[in-house]
Amino acid sequence: MSASRIGQMLPSRSVSVLNGGNVWFFGGGAQHPAGYLVSGVRSMLIPSQLSPFFPQSIALSGVSERRRGLAQEKMTENGVFSRDKVLTIDTMNPTVKNVEYAVRGPIVQRAIQIEKELREGVKKPFTEVIKANIGDAHAMGQQPITFFRQVLALCSYPELLNENMFPEDAKNRARRILQACGGGSVGAYSASQGIDCVRQDVARYIERRDGGVPCDPDNVYLTTGASDGIVTMLKLLVCGEGASRTGVMISIPQYPLYSAALAELGAVQVNYYLNEEKCWSMDLSELERSLAEARKHCNPKALCIINPGNPTGQVQSRQCIEDVIRFAAKERLFLMADEVYQDNVYAEGCQFHSFKKVLFELGPEYSDNVELASFHSTSKCYMGECGFRGGYMEVINMDPEVQAQLSKLVSVRLCPPVPGQALMDLVVNSPQPGEPSHTTFMKERTATLSLLAEKAKLTEQILNTVPGITCNPVQGAMYSFPNISLPEKSIKEAKALGQAPDMFYCMKLLEETGICLVPGSGFGQKDGTYHFRMTILPPTDKLKILLAKVKEFHQKFTQQYS
Questions:
Q1: In terms of DSSP bridges, do strands 73-75 and 81-83 run parallel, antiparallel, or are they unpaired?
Q2: What pLDDT, on the 0 to 100 scale, is given for residue 72?
Q3: Which residues are bridge partners to 249 per DSSP?
Q4: In angstroms, rounded to a whole number, what is the distance separating the alpha carbons of residues 241 and 261?
Q5: pLDDT tens-digit series, residues 479-524
Q6: Could you tell me what percentage of the chain is helix, strand and coil, using 3-state DSSP and rounding each to the nearest 5?
Q7: Which pLDDT band holds residue 5 (cuts at 50, 70, 90)?
Q8: Could you give the 3-state DSSP secondary structure of residue 116?
Q9: Tens digits of per-residue pLDDT, 85-95?
Q10: Separation between Cα atoms, residue 314 and residue 345, nearest integer Å
């Protein structure tokens, strides 16, 4: 039978059948060759009136309908062929399915739904959701630093340089940044490693911070927030299969960026536990235990440290940092120092010590050999400029051939956001004494950090008045991570629902009070212990309300499940 005769037998709706090596489309008897081969097609359904001429399903070359997860074609009720999705939950990258990020997980998604319900007039036992789940300072009401926004405004709209409303030092900073940009615009791409003059300013900042320890601008990479630099370094580190697969040691509790990145890269997460009884300090014997256990099934190559700590709010002592560096040198581990909270130190007797400074103070035995990458960001400290995605990474003692590969890798993403680079420059090159903006800048910076210190103390004090809640001092960063005692009845109910007990607790807290916290299980914790993380960022009046509601809820929850 001819193709045209077959077409005349089909309904006027457009369908397709095989004709030799082509697919022919018919509509009311008119044939239209599509002009492509069908070697990738596995089966077609043919209407019953054509069954004498074609089998109901035509298979080509013995290719199965589902081989390699390819789509199956089938006719819909209106006579049009449809195909299963090429990308399905079964055919997608399996490592992505292992990624979890508690800070924006189910609790936060439910909080967003509740906010929508409140706007629609749904009655709740509260009038607003107070989010204390993420370290987003400006979203919590923290005001931006005036000088930073002035310079960024000038960079974004250079016509303002002709106005008299901006101080001269802000104009000079903007002119310098714009002169370093292609076409004098922050809308142009920069060099992949970052704007040269900004990297030079970062290097000088590091030298001042570390008491004169030299910093080569060629070892500085500007990044899209600190997270970009951390993930980039992990990409360089991860390799091997089976017992040779790269292991990366991370603290527990940890910031979920690390576990998520390792899951996506298919690396082995090697947990070491911080000592809660000693204010979340690092313990050398625990590092040794963790490493020895990991070497039985993978190849540990890197050790990650967050100092000051997230989610635990500790500030590691200088002695602790020395011990970690010696341990890394002895065990041949690459050090990754996440130092984005380096200005957020509140507790009396605590001080931030950069890993690089301590490394060089230990002498050439260590400073010439230990490989280190350290990270900083515009998102935390007194700046809180999360949305600009500014940051930097400095690498120390990196193999030159590997560093060439690093430069290649960062070139793939073209460059970090140029406004974020400009902001990073202002953080490391802030107004100096004698400049017009210095007094206002110092006043705003000091006020922001002082208020954070007050809220850190307030949080610790109020939480420790609640029976069943124990909170270590919030020495630094922006979070508290209190230990909560949960009744056995609530633990059993949570497990029956397939939830972690502290997830169950935090979800009920959200539904009954509008308080959005993150369960400790999203950060990791010792078996049998339960926690939640909350930021200290809400305005003081809201923070007091939040803490009072947590106190009331915990007492009610304990009574309900006892």
A1: antiparallel
A2: 57
A3: 270, 303
A4: 17
A5: 999 999 999 999 999 999 999 999 999 999 999 999 999 999 989 9
A6: 45, 15, 40
A7: very low
A8: helix
A9: 877 778 777 77
A10: 9
Which of the two residues, 81 and 554, has the higher pLDDT score? 554
Q: Are 373 and 229 in contact (CB under 8 A)?
A: yes
Q: Can you say whether the dihedral through the CA atoms of 488, 493, 496, 499 is positive or negative?
A: negative
Per CATH, the homologous superfamily of domain 102-141+441-561 is: Aspartate Aminotransferase, domain 1 (3.90.1150.10)
Number of residues assigned to the chain: 562
Any residues with CB less than 8 A from the CB of 42 and at least 6 apart, and which? 59, 60, 63, 64, 65, 67, 70, 72, 73
Helices 196-209 and 168-179 sit at what angle, rounded to 10 degrees? 120
Which one, of 35, 34, 26, lies nearest residue 3 by Cα?
Answer: 26
Residues 6+ away with beta carbon under 8 Å from 412: none
- pTM of the entire predicted model: 0.81
Are residues 132 and 122 in contact, defined by beta-carbon separation less than 8 angstroms? no
Which of helix, strand or coil describes residue 327? helix
Which pair of tokens denotes residue 402? 């590997």
Domain with CATH 3.40.640.10 in the chain: 184-430
Q: What is the pLDDT, as a whole number, of residue 255?
A: 87
Residue for token pair 């922050």: 186
Question: How high is the pLDDT of residue 92?
Answer: 73
* Confidence grade of residue 51 (pLDDT, cut at 50, 70, 90): very low
**For residues 544 and 458, what is the distance between their CA atoms, to the nearest angstrom?**
8
Band of pLDDT at residue 68, cut at 50, 70 and 90: very low
**Whole-angstrom Cα distance, residue 497 to residue 501?**
10
Beta strands in 348-390 (DSSP E): 372-377
Q: Please, which residues have CB within 8 angstroms of residue 101's CB and are 6 or more apart in sequence?
A: 256, 257, 260
Domain with CATH 3.90.1150.10 in the chain: 102-141+441-561
Torsion, CA 347, CA 349, CA 355, CA 360, rounded to 10? 160
Phi, psi of 72 (to 5 degrees): -100, 135
CA distance 221 to 178: 19
- Cβ atoms 58, 35 nearer than 8 A: no
With beta carbons less than 8 A apart as the criterion, state whether 390 and 225 touch.
yes
Model confidence over 173-200: pLDDT tens digits? 999 999 999 999 999 999 889 999 999 9
**CATH no. for 184-430:** 3.40.640.10
Distance CA 189, CA 198 (A): 14
- Cβ neighbour number for residue 48 with a 10 Å cutoff: 8
